Amino acid sequence: MACENKRILPYLGPKEVKTIQGKTDTIFHQIPSFAFLNQDSVLINEKTYEGKIYVADFFFTSCPTICPKMKTQMLRIYQRYEDNPSILLLSHSIDPTYDQPHVLKNYANRMEVSSKKWNFVTGKKEDIYRLGQKSYMVTAQKDEKEAGGFVHSGAFILIDTKRHVRGIYDGTKEEEVNKLIEDIELLLHEK
Amino acid sequence: MKNKLLLAATSMVLMACMSKEEILHEQYRVEGLALYQKNCENCHQANGKGFKKLYPALVNTNLIKRLSDEQLSKIIKYGVKADAGHEFMPGNNDLQAIEIAEIITYLKDLNGVKEGIVEQRLVKEVIR
After folding, report:
1. Contact residues, A window 98-117, toward B, CB-based 8 Å cutoff
2. Which pLDDT belongs to residue A35?
3. What is the gyration radius of the CA atoms in chain A, in angstroms?
4. DSSP-assigned states of every residue in chain B
5. Burial of B112 (0-12, 13-18, 19+ CB in 10 A)
6. Is the Cβ–Cβ distance between A98 and A61 less than 8 Å?
């Protein structure tokens, strides 16, 4: 058992190799600072997630297509880690004009989830889209042709305690979310 | 393939001992199920079981007693606005009267109404 090769999750995103005084160091892609309002109108930023493993996604409350599937799957993660303070969730609205804090509050209440574990956030549209595309590396933008008016991926993004992207999963598929849960377990035991 | 043949054979045997009305109900139910899966299931989940308080269950509730076929037709076609009691529901403008009739027949079947169909004529009267 001691010799068992443990799977190590990759570091996703662009890497930068720096040489400082003859030593090479790899700088992994990292989620930058951010600041958004959550369902309690409380400012949420990178400090809220400091030292935590978290799962992020992009959605909007009036989405008739893939969001409901994503939310049923995210709720599985919520329920599984409800009593584990090391794991948090972060859902960004890509329709922040409509999804004001009180709308998000209603949504969270109807799902019977707590903001201690799961933040639903809204903010400047450009900030959310840029963060989604550049940092979480997923699609998120307005598109009048799409049902509901926005195009976005159903991805769940797994972020480690140092804000590195360690996995991207299809949040609409149960098997993929099973894999995500396995990977969370790996991260929990990572030194 | 084998399974499909078996299914076809079984349903033929079944159909043989069903009345015209039963066959019609079954046709509407099966079509309604497929339409439900395409248009409703994302939110209301498989078999209408709903999701928390976000997307209301369509079974084990008083839905069928509370709402007439006409009211259900309008809700499916045009959706509902959000209010204190519930979230908004988007309309399904592309659905035709016959399709709405099939969906409601399916929903009523889920709720124990195992016979009869919803006439598309009735749906046509309330949507345009």
Report:
1. 106-107, 109-112
2. 97
3. 17
4. -HHHHHHHHHHHHHHHTS-HHHHHHHHHHHHHHHHHHHHTHHHH-GGG--BTTTB--SSSSSHHHHS-HHHHHHHHHH-B--BTTB--B---TT--HHHHHHHHHHHHHHTT--S----HHHHHHH--
5. exposed
6. yes
> Which ipTM did the prediction report?
0.73
Stated as kind and residue range, the H or E segment containing A111 is helix A101-111
- For A68, the closest of B43, B53, B88 (CB atoms) is B43
A121 contacts A131 by C-beta, under 8 angstroms? no
Question: Which residues of chain A have a CB within 8 Å of the CB of B52?
Answer: 75, 110-112
Whether pTM > 0.80 for this model: the answer is: yes
What's the per-residue H, E or C state across A22-67? Answer: CEEEEECCECCCCEEECCCCCEEEHHHHCCCEEEEEEECCCCCCCH
Distance CA A140, CA A150 (A): 8
- Please give the residue of chain A at the shortest CA–CA distance from B91: A64
Percent of chain A surpassing pLDDT 70:
93
Q: For strand A118-121 and strand A53-59, is the pairing parallel, antiparallel, or unpaired?
A: unpaired
Could you give the 3-state DSSP secondary structure of residue A169?
strand
Smallest Cβ–Cβ distance between A64 and the set B42, B45, B53 belongs to B42
How many A-B residue pairs are in contact by the CB < 8 A criterion? 35
Q: Taking CB atoms and an 8 Å cutoff, what residues of chain B touch A68?
A: 42-43, 45, 51, 54-55
| pLDDT given at position B93 | 92
Task: Answer whether A181's CB lies under 8 Å from A80's CB.
Answer: yes
User: What is the C-alpha to C-alpha distance for residues B80 and B67, in angstroms, rounded to an integer?
Assistant: 13
pLDDT tens digits for A1-42? 455 567 899 999 999 888 888 888 889 999 999 999 999 999
Q: Does A68 touch chain B (CB under 8 A)?
A: yes
Chain B residues contacting A, CB < 8 Å? 42-43, 45, 51-55, 87-88, 90
